[in-house]
Amino acid sequence: MSFAIDLADRFAVSTWSLHRALGGIYPYRPDGVETPTRQPAYGEGVVELIDLPRQCAEHDIFRLEICSFHLPSRVSSYVADLRSAAEEVDVKVQTLLIEDGDLSDPETARRDAKWMAGWIDTAAALGAENMRVIAGKAQPSDAALHRAEIHLRQLAEEAADAGVRLVIENWFDLLPGPAELNRVLDALNGKVGLNGDFGNWERAGKYEDLAKIMGRAELCHAKGRYSAAGLDAEDYARCVELSDAAGYRGPFTLIYDSQYHEDEWTGILEERDCIAGVLQKVTAA
């Protein structure tokens, strides 16, 4: 599909959107083994991670986010091959998503921060522009928020030294609303960026709350809401519109998490076309 405005750098795909095509996961955890074995969590799969950059380019999407549990290996040779596969088709590794850990738990935060720090070299070797970590899963007490802020500051400094931008997400119990999220971002004074997610605050007041954070976002997980009737295009368009009105100008990472379309790429491209239509409309206004 061609677009009336240049949107070449406004879309990304997360490997989560292709979790059925990939099939297996490798559950890296702070308390787990260094090299976990593959688990066929979503079936046997029909594609390997190293093939996804080519698929992205074939669909005119040139940014890719990689979930940590989709990495079959962290050895330098595999990581170098994956990076080369992306560079050969001009696909940027936008973000490495670290999918475990909790920086707010008084018993495990130090351990988990050290484990997260161990991923920085992997992110840098992949050529990832960003690394997303989980800020915390504890209830948002002052102590829990402060604990997460301390660890995030240290992680952000280590990541920056490696040329990687650390980002967090409006996700889990520690960051249940704009007040808590904005407190953490303010405390870190620009050292940590925001990946705003459309789907993590599915509740009354969702649009108002997203409008209070998306102006600070550098990245966006644009998760479409699907039902038996298909994509809720009205909800999706409203999320894009409020983000644009708040000043968000970054890429929209297409998050397809539904069985409505058997082929995941069909859902991914439906989301892209919906967002593109909204952006064309607001640009023309």
Automatic annotation (TrEMBL):
Domain of life: Bacteria
GO molecular function, one term: isomerase activity
Record's keyword annotation contains Isomerase: yes
Assigned keywords, A-Z: Isomerase
Domain Xylose isomerase-like TIM barrel: 77-256
Any matching Pfam family: AP_endonuc_2
PANTHER family (alphabetical): BLR5974 PROTEIN, HYDROXYPYRUVATE ISOMERASE
The protein, known as: Sugar phosphate isomerase/epimerase
Source species: Rhizobium lusitanum
